[in-house]
Design goal:
By secondary structure, this protein is mainly beta. It has no helices and ten strands. The strands form two sheets. Strands 2-10-9-4-5-6 form a six-stranded mixed sheet, with no helix packed on it. Strands 1-3-8-7 form a four-stranded antiparallel sheet, with no helix packed on it. Strand 7 and strand 8 form a beta hairpin.
Length: 115
Amino acid sequence: VQLVESGGGMVQPGGSLRLSCAASGFIFSISDMSWVRQAPGKGPEWVSAINTDGGSTYYADSVKGRFTTSRDNAKNTLFLQMNSLKPEDTALYYCARGSNGRPPWGQGTQVTVSS
């Protein structure tokens, strides 16, 4: 399993970012996928999950209505569109195979929300 997250950066509160996760080493199209984040000094927090065909998505209450998970099975890529970002969204974001966000993860991509 290899997962490579990208798309993070620094953004002001209220801004948007789109994260990507390039997957390889397993059959992406038949795997549920998820996003997890870890803020400094805190444990991992499950953020979102998506089923194999993208028809069902699930979100933590903390991001519901602001984040959208999608996937492109032809490109073995998972996405996380993040809108209306808040300072408390600052974290290292990881993608994971499966819906529960458990490791293995990639190297992560840093999202910093600050004015």
